[in-house]
Amino acid sequence: MDLFKFSDDIQSAYEQLPHALAIYQLIDNRIFARVLSDGYCETFGFDSREQAYKALEKDVFYNIHPQDVSLIETEAYRSLENRDTYDIIYRSRTAGMKIDAEFKVMHAIGKHVDLENGVHLIYIWYTEAGDQVTKKIMDLQESVTSLLSNMPAMTFSKDLTTRKYIACNQAFADYAHKETPEGVVGLTDFEIFDETTAQHFVEDDKKALLMNKPYIFYEDVPDAAGNPRRFQTTKLKFMDATGKTCLLGLCQDVTDAMVIKEEYNKKLENAQNRANIDALTGIRNKTAYVEFEAKLNKTINDKGWAQFAITIFDVNNLKTINDTLGHQAGDEYICEACKIICTKFKHSPVFRIGGDEFIAISQGADYENIDELLNYFAECNMEATKTGGIVIACGMARYNNEGNVSAVFKAADEKMYENKEYLKKLE
Predict the structure, then answer these.
(1) Secondary structure of 276-345 in the HEC alphabet?
(2) Per-residue pLDDT for 184 more than 60?
(3) What is the b/e burial string over 7-19, where b = at least 16 CB atoms within 10 angstroms of the residue's CB?
(4) pLDDT in tens, 369-403
């Protein structure tokens, strides 16, 4: 679409107005200055209209504070979409082409006008805000900027209509791999992050929009460079002074903290495992048995019944081996006996609760085949008493509504000692 041009008479009439008026044309989301009045040139410190047109042709936002550009764009698209009045207060230089000129606060009110052939114009009137208003706004902005800058968490706000970032602090700019917050403002998530990450943020925004309270959650997402990060994020919707729905976000990077926590939990788990493992055989020890017994008692109390069997093993002749062959031979004897027990009771937790004493608690498959397993030990023991092999006395008892595990343990222990005495007579 070509740039619109008023007739010479109308163009001249507009340009000679003493009021600060500018008429812009919107083409493919780009803004072009079509009319700049004498009052506009005076208000913004231009020496001539030619100078003003040239400056805005190069950059229509050239004299606006960088932090306010996205606000202006957001308000422009909001008012365009809703066919509503354009109304915004922002900071602008008022000294023409002098880049180092002081910023002052301006009030801009505009209206959208559609002409034939799809021409869309925006009429905007400008006035300078008073000194008191300027001071209040600047003081407020400095306070907010200071607050954002000193917050350890990443902070940002978005326009939920355009999905563009309105503001952010340096911590969020660093996460987005931008040098300054100004590098983030005016961009969408899709212009900063990869598509998957950006879509993830958009979906979270939608969830926050549906809630009437802060939306707090943990998330694992990469930064703009693709590095994995973990955040505790809070998102909260709010309405700004113009009635726009916006989003405030606070993201605390907890990546390092979670790594430390995971390492601590892993070390704690390893320490707990070591505390429950028998150093000689590598199976569970008496401490682990006590914990297992407590869990089993809880099951009995909660459900009123449980199906399990306890088998107690005692390795015969350990003292004789220690006295004649030494403790290293005795340790090897215990380990070999442990291997035999664990191989047969492969579906049961096995515990070493004393020097030569082991316990197996059988449920499931081992429970169903418990008699067959005991017959195996009986046959092996008969052969070992003749050949000098490892003799492992054992006794088993099933739970039969005794009300606790210790009663079953006692019954199994008595049977084990009976078996032990019987085997000694055979040796």
Answers:
(1) CECCCCCCECHHHHHHHHHHHHHHHHHHCCCCCEEEEEEECCHHHHHHHHCHHHHHHHHHHHHHHHHHHC
(2) yes
(3) eeeeeeebbeeee
(4) 999 999 999 999 999 988 888 999 999 999 999 99
Query: For residues 423 and 385, what is the distance between their CA atoms, to the nearest angstrom?
Result: 8
CATH number of domain containing 240: 3.30.450.20
Model confidence pLDDT, tens digit, residues 204-263: 999 988 888 888 888 888 887 888 888 888 898 887 655 678 888 888 877 776 666 667
* CATH number of the domain that residue 360 is part of: 3.30.70.270
Per-position b or e across 376-388, b if 16+ CB within 10 A of its CB: ebeebbeebbeee
Whether residue 265 is contained in a domain is answered as: no
Co-location of 120 and 179 in the same domain: no
Verify that 13 and 96 share a domain, yes or no.
yes
Q: Which residues contact 225 (CB under 8 A, 6 or more apart)?
A: 177
* Residues 249 and 292 reside in one and the same domain: no
